[in-house]
């Protein structure tokens, strides 16, 4: 038996403690505006790291992440909505539901679970496709889910959406979930299961001939990805406190794809880096855009950067590599800590 | 439900379907050769609509200009997009090309926002084009007639070009087997450029038709029709021009039928319907109606 | 006519061809034999510009052709009839032949050559307006060779022309190759059917894991007992 007190674990624990301290300091000193940006970073880490399971590791390029976010977001919103708001907005639902308010953590988990449950039949259908067709089919899923959100009046209130939620998402929830997501994704990827995922991505025929259950691997990755997508949606909903169908737009899916691609799909630490950069950069750019009254410029710069990345650095910043924790913690102490050393 | 109502829906469906068909042709030609879903294709339609609107509002210019100029300009635009964004990615994984095309789509949309405005603007045709005619109880506008005539003429011309010209032959060969095409000395960049020029030109025409039909244009109007047109191309059999036309028309008729024949509370689900249709086609007949199987192409 | 010196080709990290040298003189048929994965097809694809070598030199008629595009190489006079035939199945036979002459500007000459192809392969003329996909395997191989000849090459690269064909058709294909040589063509032939290929060729190279291990006049290779056992499946 190896001792639990390895150098790696000490570094990890130290990193976690450091993260907690930094978040505590941030929580105490920063104003709301910056706190919200920090929360968004945590949420986007959840979303990007989970999208990495499919788009990066099994090579199933999904454009449907916002669909699972919508499922998680709406589900959790329905569960946590305060009684007063509920009486106004959900009058058409059964009485027992109107009186049932779930605590936020439970609602978040439940949002993730429902997204995962829905991902099962969806995955059974769309994962029979690969490549471009899968991308368009998952984009279709997003459009279908948005149609339902826009039209299922008694539950979603259509275009009016759900509002009056408590602002439950704080730094601790956002980064707590980010750490959990990274931990789970990292463990998945660095397990026999993860090696199978990568084998499926690199050559599914060869993987199948070596006895890898290709479809099952892809399906599990898809469902896990959906779970954290749902969780991310719940976190986002309780940061915004109001959601409408356009909250979970194609733009959102696209933003997460950009984070993943720029960080380097196939790298867990890359997802973290991508999420950080692509949360902060648009904020700065939008600020400039407003200051100089140049609408659209931030999106233009981001789109041009994305194209440039595809032409000149297709593998993203990290490629398939991971940052080693010792250098990691020295350089970027404000990031989640469940990142351990690359194995082998 | 009267026969007239059914025929009326059919006319509307054919009109929408013709526009999908025009868009789908460009998508299918490009996908056939490059295996690229050009998400920016619909945005060229949007640009075409904006160019067209300049000539629509200038009453002194004949309406023909509102069709021709965007068609020609988008042909050039398509080539520019191909050469600057897609050409550097030859041989890259298909996902890289897909992401790039999403980026190009964003770039075009937001450049339009920057240059003009994010606000929608009206696109109003001269009165005589929207005047309705009544033929046996079915209402047509001159625009409907113009749409059908334009689409039919363009398809005949395109088919002749693809089937008869040397470039058309090279395009078909490249679409079937890019490796072999290069090996026998076909300049595939030329064939790819031709596919973009022709397809984008048709997207420019579609821009005029779409804007005329809905009377309003905005920088983001093109994306969804573009994706739906790709759905149409898949239904028809990706890579096949005939398939794109048939798929486009079928999709238009099905979509209008869905809205026209089901109770009104379903009409909000029309986009969902289109993509459900796509999923069914992909699972039941992944090669579409006229598509060659991937094996046959190899 | 064709000089390959110290050729080195890799797919990513996997080396397919290394230190390969090979010469084809005008008017010769040169055969390259070797097992699957020995680098035969890679060599041909590098000559025709489909692959870029890591290092090494390929010259044709005394001028380097490394780094030229496939179409430029076709224009210089090298034509490659690929493994697996790769005819355009959805195009007609006539269209396939016309595309073979894609880079030629002499319409009259193209017409004459088309007639010549139909003389050489009468079955193609009978079915000239049918889709190439409807042809049998042997007929497709003839079309593939005819298509390559339509560019009026001075050097013809033939990759596995007999692959997957019935013995009678194999005979026919080799007859065509001999006929081409008698008309003055220069041919670099890659074949699994080493026995037959050596019989009609002047010189031969044996490839093993990407490099030449034996070379010499074909007649010597046929009579080399070791080679007979190892490569020709004869004893």
Describe this structure as you would to a colleague.
The complex is a heterotrimer of chains A (344), B (298) and C (235). Chain A is an all-alpha fold and 344 residues long. Chain A is 72% helix and 0% strand. Chain A contains 16 helices and no strands. The longest helix of chain A is centred in the first third of the chain and has 27 residues, at 32-58. Chain A is globular, with a radius of gyration of 20 Å. Chain A starts with 6 loop residues before the first helix and ends in a 13-residue tail after the last helix. Chain B has 298 residues and is mostly helical. Chain C has 235 residues and is α/β, with parallel strands linked by helices. Chain C has a single domain (2-230), classed as Rossmann fold (3-Layer(aba) Sandwich), CATH 3.40.50.300. Helix content of chain C is 38%, strand content 26%. In chain C, the strands form two sheets. Chain C has a six-stranded mixed sheet with strand order 6-7-8-3-9-10, sandwiched between helices. Chain C has a four-stranded antiparallel sheet with strand order 2-1-4-5, covered by helices on one side. The radius of gyration of chain C is 17 Å and the shape is globular. Chains in contact: A-B, B-C. The interface between A and B is large, with 40 and 46 residues. Chain C: One of its GO terms (molecular function) is ATP binding. Chain C: Residues 2-234 form the ABC transporter domain.
Overview features:
heterotrimer, A: about 350 residues, mainly alpha, globular, C: about 240 residues, alpha/beta, four-stranded antiparallel β-sheet, about 40% helix
Please give the structural blueprint.
The complex is a heterotrimer of chains A (344), B (298) and C (235).
Chain A lengths: L6 H23 L2 H27 L6 H16 L2 H7 L5 H4 L5 H23 L4 H21 L1 H4 L14 H19 L2 H11 L1 H6 L4 H27 L9 H14 L4 H24 L5 H16 L12 H7 L13
Helix pairs in contact in A: 2-9, 2-12, 2-13, 2-14, 3-6, 3-7, 3-12, 6-12, 9-12, 10-12, 13-14, 14-15
Chain B lengths: L2 H32 L6 H17 L5 H24 L7 H22 L5 E2 L4 H4 L1 E4 L2 E4 H23 L1 H11 L1 H6 L4 H27 L1 E2 L5 H14 L4 H21 L8 H15 L9 H4 L1
Helix pairs in contact in B: 1-6, 1-7, 1-9, 1-10, 1-11, 2-3, 2-4, 2-9, 2-10, 3-9, 6-7, 6-9, 7-9, 10-11, 10-12, 11-12
Chain C lengths: L1 E10 L2 E11 L4 E6 L5 H8 L7 E6 L2 E2 L5 H7 L1 E4 L11 H8 L6 H14 L1 H5 L10 H13 L5 E5 L7 H16 L3 E5 L3 H7 L2 E6 L2 E7 H6 L1 H6 L5
Parallel strand pairs in C: 3-8, 3-9, 6-7, 7-8
Antiparallel strand pairs in C: 1-2, 1-4, 4-5, 9-10
């Amino acid at each position: 038996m190896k001792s639990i007190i390895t150098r790696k674990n000490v570094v990890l624990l130290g990193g976690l403690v450091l993260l907690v301290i930094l978040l505590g300091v941030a929580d105490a000193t920063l104003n709301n505006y910056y706190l919200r940006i920090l929360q968004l970073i945590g949420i986007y880490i959840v979303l990007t790291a989970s999208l990495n399971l499919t788009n990066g590791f099994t090579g199933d390029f999904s454009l449907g992440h916002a669909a699972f976010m919508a499922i998680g977001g709406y589900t959790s919103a329905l569960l946590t909505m305060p009684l007063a708001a509920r009486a106004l907005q959900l009058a058409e639902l059964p009485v027992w539901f109107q009186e049932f308010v779930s605590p936020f953590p439970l609602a978040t988990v439940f949002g993730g679970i429902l997204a995962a449950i829905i991902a099962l039949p969806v995955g059974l259908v769309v994962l029979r496709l690969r490549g471009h067709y899968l991308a368009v089919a998952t984009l279709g899923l997003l459009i279908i889910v948005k149609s339902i959100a826009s039209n299922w009046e008694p539950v979603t209130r259509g275009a009016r959406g759900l509002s009056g939620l408590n602002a439950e998402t704080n730094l601790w929830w956002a980064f707590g979930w980010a750490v959990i997501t990274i931990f789970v994704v990292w463990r998945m990827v660095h397990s026999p299961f993860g090696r199978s995922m990568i084998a499926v991505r690199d050559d599914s025929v060869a993987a199948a001939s070596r006895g890898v259950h290709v479809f099952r691997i892809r399906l599990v990755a898809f469902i896990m990805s959906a779970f954290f997508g749902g969780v991310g949606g719940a976190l986002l909903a309780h940061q915004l406190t109001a959601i409408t169908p356009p909250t979970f737009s194609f733009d959102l899916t696209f933003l997460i794809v950009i984070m993943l691609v720029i960080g380097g799909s196939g790298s867990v630490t890359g997802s973290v880096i991508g999420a950080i950069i692509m949360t902060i950069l648009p904020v700065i750019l939008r600020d400039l855009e407003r200051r100089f009254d140049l609408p659209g410029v931030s999106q233009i710069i981001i789109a041009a950067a994305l194209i440039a990345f595809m032409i000149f650095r297709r593998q993203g910043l990290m490629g398939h590599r991971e940052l080693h924790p010792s250098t990691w913690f020295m350089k970027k102490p404000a990031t989640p800590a469940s990142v351990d050393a690359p194995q082998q | 439900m009267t026969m007239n109502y059914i025929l009326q829906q059919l006319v509307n469906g054919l009109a929408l379907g013709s526009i999908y068909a025009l868009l789908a042709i460009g998508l299918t030609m490009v996908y056939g050769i490059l295996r690229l879903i050009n998400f920016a294709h619909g945005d060229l339609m949007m640009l075409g609509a904006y160019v067209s609107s300049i000539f629509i509002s200038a009453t002194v210019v004949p309406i023909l200009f509102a069709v021709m100029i965007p068609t020609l300009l988008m042909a050039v635009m398509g080539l520019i997009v191909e050469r600057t964004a897609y050409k550097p990615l030859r041989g890259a994984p298909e996902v890289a090309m897909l992401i790039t095309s999403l980026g190009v789509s964003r770039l075009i949309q937001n450049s339009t926002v920057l240059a003009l405005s994010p606000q929608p603007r009206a696109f109003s045709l001269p009165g005589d084009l929207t005047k309705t005619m009544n033929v046996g109880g079915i209402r047509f506008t001159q625009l409907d007639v113009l749409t059908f005539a334009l689409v039919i003429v363009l398809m005949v011309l395109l088919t002749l070009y693809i089937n008869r010209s040397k470039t058309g032959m090279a395009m078909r060969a490249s679409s079937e087997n890019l490796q072999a095409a290069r090996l026998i000395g076909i300049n595939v960049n030329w064939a790819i450029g031709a596919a973009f020029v022709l397809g984008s030109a048709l997207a420019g025409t579609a821009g005029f038709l779409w804007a005329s039909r809905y009377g309003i244009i905005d920088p983001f109007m093109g994306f969804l029709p573009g994706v739906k047109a790709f759905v149409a191309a898949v239904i028809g059999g990706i890579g096949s021009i005939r398939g794109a036309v048939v798929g486009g028309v079928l999709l238009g008729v099905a979509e209008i039928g869905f809205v026209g024949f089901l109770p009104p509370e379903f009409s909000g689900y029309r986009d969902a319907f289109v993509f459900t249709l796509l999923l069914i086609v992909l699972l039941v007949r992944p090669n579409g109606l006229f598509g060659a199987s991937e094996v046959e192409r190899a | 006519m064709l000089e390959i010196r110290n050729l080195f080709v890799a797919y990513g990290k996997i080396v397919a061809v290394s230190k390969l040298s090979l010469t084809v003189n005008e008017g010769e048929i040169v055969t390259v034999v070797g097992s699957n994965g020995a680098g035969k097809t890679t060599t041909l694809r590098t000559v025709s510009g489909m692959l870029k070598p890591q290092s090494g030199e390929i010259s044709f008629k005394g001028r380097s052709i490394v780094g030229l595009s496939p179409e430029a190489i076709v224009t210089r006079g090298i034509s490659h009839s690929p493994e697996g035939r790769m005819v355009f199945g959805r195009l007609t036979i006539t269209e396939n032949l016309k595309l073979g002459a894609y880079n030629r500007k002499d319409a009259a000459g193209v017409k004459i050559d088309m007639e010549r192809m139909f003389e050489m392969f009468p079955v193609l003329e009978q079915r000239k307006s049918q889709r190439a996909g409807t042809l049998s395997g042997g007929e497709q191989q003839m079309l593939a060779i005819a298509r390559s000849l339509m560019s009026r090459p001075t050097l013809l690269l033939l990759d596995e022309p007999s692959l997957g064909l019935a013995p009678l058709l194999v005979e026919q294909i080799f007859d065509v190759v001999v006929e081409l040589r008698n008309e003055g063509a220069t041919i670099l032939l890659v074949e699994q059917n080493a026995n037959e290929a050596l019989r009609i060729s002047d010189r031969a190279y044996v490839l093993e894991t990407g490099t030449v291990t034996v070379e010499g006049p074909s007649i010597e290779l046929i009579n080399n007992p070791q080679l007979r056992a190892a490569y020709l499946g004869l004893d």
